[in-house]
Amino acid sequence: MGRYIARRLIAAIPVLMGVILVVFILSTLVPGDPARILSGQRGDPETIERIRHEMGLDLPWYIQMVRFYKDALTFNLGRSYRNNMKVTQAVISRIPASAELAGAAMLIAIPLGMILGIISAVKQYSLWDYASMILALLGVSTPVFFAGLLMIVIFCVLLGWLPGTGYGDGSLTYLILPAITLGIRPAALIARITRSSMLEVIRQDYIRTARSKGVHERSVVFRHALRNAMIPVVTVIGVDVPSLLSGAILTETIFCWPGIGRLAYEAVINRDFPIQRGVVLFMALIFLAATLIVDLSYGFFDPRIRYE
Amino acid sequence: MPDTGPKVAGINGVAPPRKTVVTGEGRTEVGRSLWYYAWLRLKRNKSAMLGLALVILVVFSAIFAPWITRYDPIEQLIWTEGESAQLAPPSGKHWCGTDLYGRDVFSRVVYGTRVSLRLAVAATIISVVIGTTLGALAGYYGGFVDDVVSWLTSVIFAFPFLLFVITIVAYLPPSDTLVYTVIGIISWIQVGRIVRGQVMAIKETEFVQAAIASGAGDMRIIFKHILPNVIAPVIVSATLGMGSIVMLEAGLTFLGFGTQPPTPSWGYDISRGQEYLLSGQWWWSIFPGTAICLTVLGFNLLGDGLRDALDPRLKQ
Question: Global pTM?
Answer without folding.
Answer: 0.85
